[in-house]
Amino acid sequence: MPEPSDRRSRKRLATSKAISDAATRLFMERGFDHVTVDEIAEAADVGRMTVFNHFPRKEDMFFDRDEEGREMLRAAVGQRAAGVAPLEALCLLAHRLVAERSPVVEFSARSERLVPTVAGSETLKARARAIRDELADLVAEALAEAIGRDPDDPDARLAAGLLLATWTVAFLEAHRTFRQTRSREKANEAFLALVDRGTAGLKAAMAATPYI
Amino acid sequence: MPEPSDRRSRKRLATSKAISDAATRLFMERGFDHVTVDEIAEAADVGRMTVFNHFPRKEDMFFDRDEEGREMLRAAVGQRAAGVAPLEALCLLAHRLVAERSPVVEFSARSERLVPTVAGSETLKARARAIRDELADLVAEALAEAIGRDPDDPDARLAAGLLLATWTVAFLEAHRTFRQTRSREKANEAFLALVDRGTAGLKAAMAATPYI
DNA sequence: CAGATATGTGTACTCAGTATATATTAAAAC
DNA sequence: GTTTTAATATATACTGAGTACACATATCTG
Fold first, then answer.
1. In this structure, what CATH number is given to the domain that contains residue A37?
2. Which of B109, B199, B53 is closest to A205 using CA atoms?
3. What's the CA gap between A33 and A128, in Å, rounded?
4. Same domain, B74 and B143
5. Which of A155, B59, B128, B195 could form an S-S bond across to A209 if both were Cys, CB 3.0 to 4.6 Å?
6. Angle in degrees, CA A131, A134, A140, rounded to 5
7. Residue B162: inside a domain
């Protein structure tokens, strides 16, 4: 978080946050599709055009931290410890995020309200899928670069596709586990167990691709 | 294809086809986002409301055969030969579709125009992703039933997620191969090679899940 | 302080999708 | 064969997201 010193940037950030906060609150209260942009503008006390100025699409007010996920994935592959294979680094990332209680894989009262909000809206589900595909592309390119292949190398694409599929299934299963057991520990276990199994399969699929 | 005998159904089918044909032609000519529903109605010589009567969403005029894919997946798992594991049956399906030159995995001049049309529109990509997720859900449930588990069994979900991810990557890579080599044979080979590798990894991830 | 620039905002528009009412046409019932 | 009944086509009028453009105002820079 840079927290810029000039007033203009600070004001812009404040406006952005006001809109995002108002929007997220309304989305969780009434469901994404039952909140209009006009209502969000009203609630954040800004003009309607200002909303679109900060968030080109309505969904962006809900998913406004996906860039952090990108950064983490890039860093995990790009700045991995010496001697660690790229795929291994991504598996370690999953474990580290859980150990550090990162909001990305947080299974808590908060996620318990967030997930149904997404599940209740086709638009939000569509954006979630798009982000997943964008992350898969990013991982594919990072893996390809790490093993010295073309950016669209099919091995890297397959690995990335399998990885994101695994994480998605693991995330939803962990969320389900939390909802049923009320235990963050059990949710974390369920998440990591599935990630490890997926990763094992992934490595098997990549057996013929050295150093990945 | 039932080809119904009563005039009413025949007329409805003809109207549907006229709209779908006009729409697909316009989409490929000018790109999905540069065609309005009014233009489609005009081209198909029907009223605007008739278009929405037949196709609730604009995207449905492009993806109007996804039900066939569902049928094939259901049948592959549900009516597999005795002694064939569900996952094996799905792998065999991929090979059979290629061998039978099914439109689903067709790499040809036609697919060469279809794929860029999808790639050029966020709306069509979103629908493609949604269909992929719907197919994954369907496969997950079919697998779960085949091995006597709950419909939301995590093993079945993981297997289905990995399978659809594999097929997606394999399809796009095969398309790329066709575009570059102009050879349907090479495209088919690329497709099946990736499907087989993904399936191998999938089986490894499922090693602890008997009979899947 | 003056000019350049980022930001906020209003007006007017396009287009997808929905609600509702009505007309027409084929099917079914008698 | 005439009368009901139901499916289909279509018009009108609406909602809401997103865009284009113009303009005002606040902030930064020289």
1. 1.10.10.60
2. B199
3. 15
4. yes
5. A155
6. 140
7. yes
Nearest chain A residue to B196 by CA: give it.
A205
**Domain end marker among A46, A61, A76:** A61
Task: Evaluate if residue B1 carries a pLDDT over 50.
Answer: no
Q: Let me know whether B95 and B145 are in one domain.
A: yes
Digit-coded pLDDT (tens) for B72-125? 999 999 999 999 999 999 999 999 999 999 999 999 999 999 999 999 999 999
Alpha helices in chain A (DSSP H): 7-30, 37-44, 48-54, 66-78, 86-99, 109-119, 122-146, 154-181, 184-205
A103 at B interface, C-beta within 8 A: no
Interface check for A57 against chain B (CB to CB < 8 A): the answer is no
Question: Token pair of B13, please?
Answer: 């089918």
Contact (CB, 8 A) for A121 and A114: no
The answer to whether B199 and B91 are in contact (CB under 8 A) is yes
Same domain for B54 and B82? no
The answer to whether residues A88 and A177 belong to one domain is yes
The pLDDT, as a whole number, for residue B146 is: 97
Strand D near-CB residues (< 7 Å), B 3-22? 8-9, 11-12, 15
Q: pLDDT tens digits for B110-165?
A: 999 999 999 999 999 999 999 999 999 999 999 999 999 999 999 999 999 999 99
Assess whether B96 and B169 both reside in one domain: yes
Q: How far does A12 lie from chain B, in Å, by closest CA?
A: 29
How would you write B124-181 as a 3-class SS string? HHHHHHHHHHHHHHHHHHHHHHHCCCCCCCHHHHHHHHHHHHHHHHHHHHHHHHHHHH
Residue B133 lies in a domain: yes
Q: Which domain holds residue B16?
A: 7-61
Asked if residue A95 and residue A186 are part of one domain, the reply reads yes
Q: Are residues B71 and B55 in the same domain?
A: no
Distances (CA, A) of A131 to A58, A66, A134, B65, B88: 15, 8, 5, 26, 31
Question: How many domains in chain A?
Answer: 2
> What's the CA gap between A129 and A25, in Å, rounded?
22
Is B57 within the bounds of a domain? Answer: yes
